[in-house]
Amino acid sequence: xxxxxxxxxxxxxxxxxxxxxxxxxxxxxxxxxxxxxxxxxxxxxxxxxxxxxxxxxxxxxxxxxxxxxxxxxxxxxxxxxxxx
Length: 84
Description:
By secondary structure, the protein is mainly α. It has one domain. It has helices spanning 2-5, 9-82.
């Protein structure tokens, strides 16, 4: 009986209900976008860390080679100076 007497309230509150539904849909879309953005950032971080680890490994190899060259030059200089 309530619905029969107040059916016209659908027109009054229809816009509000529609607006609320639209707001909820937009909020869900924003939430999904934020979730995808967090996932993308996490993946980029993992890739960057892996690249840095590989670069650090090759850098340590080149540092080791460079130190060996410096020590060889130093030993050669010591040998020249001490041969006098």
